[in-house]
Give the backbone structure.
Amino acid sequence: MKRKIGLITLIILILAASLVWGKEEPLTNWLQDPATPLAKDVRTNFWISLLVILPFLFISEGLLFYAIVKFKAKPNAKPATFHENLRLEIAWTILPALALVIIAFPTFTTLKKMEVPPKSDLVVEVIGHQFFWEYRYPRQEINFAEKPLVVPVNKVVTLNCTSVDVIHSWFVPAFGVKQDANPGRITHAWFKALQTGTYKGQCAELCGALHALMYITVNVVSDEEFKAWVEKNKPAPVTPTPTVAPVKSKT
Amino acid sequence: MADYKKSKLDGIKDWLTTTDHKKIGIMYLWFALFNAVVGGSLAGLIRSQLFTPDSKLLTPEMYNQVMSMHGTLMIFFVIIPAMVGFGNYVVPIQIGARDMAFPKLNAFTFWIQIPAAILMFSSFLVPGGTTQAGWTGYAPLTTKQFSGTAGVDMWIFGLHLVGMGSILGAINFLVTIINMRAPGMKYLKMPLLSWTWFVNAVLMLVATPVLAGVITMLLSDRLLGTSFFQPAGGGDPVLYQHLFWFYSHPAVYIMVLPGMGLVSMVLPAFAHKKIFGYKGLVLATCAIGFIGFMVWGHHMFASGIDPVLRSIFAFMTMVIAVPTGIKIFSWIATIWGGTIRFTTAMRFGLAFISLFIIGGMSGLTLAVIPFDVQVHDTYYVVAHLHYVLFGGSMMTLLAGLFFYFPKMSGRVLDEKLGKISFWHIFIGMNVTFLPMHWLGILGMPRRVSSYPQRPEFALINQIEMLGYLLMIGGGILILYNIFKTLRKPKNAGADPWDVNQIQNTLEWTISSPPPPENFETIPVVK
């Protein structure tokens, strides 16, 4: 028994250590460093749900553990004989149901925020390929692939996602955004990054052999830098070419 | 295990041609055990590959094959047949029948699993290997254009055969339970294992044809050039997901309801108390079966389906937590005030409750759509599903194994070895799957063969390897225990666990192993 306890303690220590180590790494995720208002909402939503769910988890596990320790068979002990209690049964039906209503409300309000984006400042078309991402800025007429997405800070960026082959999923944890890109359909997502910096993500829907290497990088830059970037990458103004070929007279 | 004839050859012939529900049940269990060894080894390959961020152990193609086949085998060839094995063995005896309603059909549903398994295993050998699209096989990744290999066709045919077996088996269970109950065995007197099988058979009968349909559509896309799921031809990949999950969400309950039945038999036996809230448990089982058909969309929250539809699915997912909660509380009330004997079966049963609570609660967090979208297709989901399927179904199966082994073979499994294997599996399970929640929140997607740009995921994956090794140790001990015990004399007696002091169920009134046809005269239930 002592050995078992020792083993369990060891494992818990390793787990705790792993969490501490994990924190030192340059992580960006919605729980530790949410980078958009949406990611913050998701985090709040998660905490509220946990606040409701965890008491049920601890109460039920606690009761189970107590019963296991307390009602161990002892010589001469007689088992109880009750096997019904309508009030108790009604209580453990109604109480969890009420708790679920409490979880449902913030869920639906956050869902509404996800689904109804504010007025868009920048539209980007996200196109999944096996195994890279193509980005198109229709208003700026910029198209490129296999390079980081560049967006301005504090601006609402709307994403229209689709795919040319199989299903991909555009997933940047720190933004609180994950959206499947389905071939033949256009799906929508949006984010508003609050700080400049580089954010990592990757494709989250199995899309073939190199799925694991289909990374996403987003560079969030200041407004000026973004304008400079657009100027630099804009297609060179095309010299107007005559639409009608000059007529050459034969004679 | 149980041999009724003396000559060795006769014995083998007897097994091959038997229509005895008990022998068929035992064959199902051997079949599941064999596949569990294969599926468990594939899990070892997965864990070894992910041990380092940029492992070259498996190529990405090979990793995807291993991962897909691990899922397919564990679901369709381990958990479901093992559940069917216990159901096949125990349910007819429990309701006082001599056999299933259609014994020959019963044999057919078992033997059809063998070519299915052969198709699955041999699909690794064809050029291009087997499917690489996960057990879900989402189109269009599984269409001819993106998976040219014949392995996918073999995977589909294998699932067809298994599905056919499920449908026929469900009909057999339903007819048996409706028509062949002993006199006096009213519906509300049926033991809970039979009740869960009743509901389960309805689930299998209603859901499985949809799976058969959707993979047939996929097959015709592949072989006949139709375009159900190809946008270029007017098809829709999201349709595949709707149809697939219309089967596969109820399939989750197909995998866990009979296990809940097993646990409902084990807990009263070793707590020396009648099951608490029998009617509540029956109602909860029916409710889970019914609502289970209305929650499939929660697998598709990131697919871009309509937000109103998503809200409804999220709400139904929360609703289904209520009957599940009723079950958990009723089980705790069952052991409350009892005198608990900690046999191995009881340990696995109690472990099931504690792990299923965690799996259920993490499932509830997944009903919170904004959170679900963040952790969808990450290791959080992998953690959740292993808490439900390993901590849930597998623990109930192991409880059932230790509980019913004496009935099936006439020999009690070694308890000391059993307890050691219990601790290995229980601790190993938690060390492997608990940290996965954290990994998912950090943003590690599932189904990735490497993570060279995210070395911070490595440490947790390495800890998980430790847990995997513990579980394998426990598994090997259980195998050793089974083969060791089978060499011992049959001395279990009709009721080795003294179950009938607590609540009368018919399987413990007849000898272990029971005679062919179970009962000399059909018992009358009071």
The mean pLDDT of chain A is 87. Chain A has four helices and ten strands. Chain A has two domains: 30-72+85-116, 122-233.
